[in-house]
Design a protein that fits this description.
53% helix, 5 strands, five-stranded mixed β-sheet, single chain, alpha/beta
Length: 169
């Protein structure tokens, strides 16, 4: 199964793709879609949409995980992040993919084991779980963590569903 993780951001929208085969996980690619500050918001969102669509076309993921938006003190900033998150949700839906949504603390707890881990701890554990990976930046690193989280929860969810189906049969 090919999994894409998406870290929404208006300036830098991170993406990371992994391949899973049972419990085996390998790195496929990672990067970020960028939009230029100082340009109209509609143009920035269109640019992110086009760039992320190109990633989906090139790598053909099977499922997607997206980080949930958190609310911060700056209401305008939160709203802009929400609009970028809309692009992060729209593109996988356009490609017919199921989307898992994860809170930042759940991603960190899944990948690091601690819900309040810092960025260096997350990067370290991503490198441990994906040996040889070259991280292209902090947004791509976070996206790979999201992909790992989604792969884990998809796998355990499918295992639970299968066990419950067998128990009912």
């Amino acid at each position: 199964m090919r999994v894409i993780g998406i870290d929404p951001g208006l300036r830098n929208l991170g993406w990371g793709i992994i391949e899973t085969d049972g419990s085996r996980v390998s790195h496929v690619a990672n990067g970020a879609c960028h939009s230029a500050t100082g340009t109209p918001l509609g143009d920035r969102l269109l640019s992110l949409h086009q760039q992320l669509s190109d990633v989906f076309t090139q790598y053909a993921p099977d499922t997607a995980g997206v980080e949930q938006t958190f609310v911060n003190k700056d209401g305008a900033g939160t709203l802009k992040l929400g609009q970028a998150r809309g692009i992060a949700m729209l593109v996988p839906a356009q490609f017919g993919l199921g989307i898992g949504e994860y809170a930042p603390n759940k991603i960190k707890k899944t990948v690091v084991g601690v819900g309040h881990a810092d960025k260096t701890q997350v990067a370290h554990m991503v490198k441990m779980q994906l040996p040889g990976v070259v991280l292209t930046g902090p947004d791509a690193t976070d996206a790979l963590a999201i992909a790992l989280c989604h792969a884990f929860h998809s796998r355990t969810g499918n295992t639970l569903s299968a066990a419950l189906a067998r128990a009912g049969a």
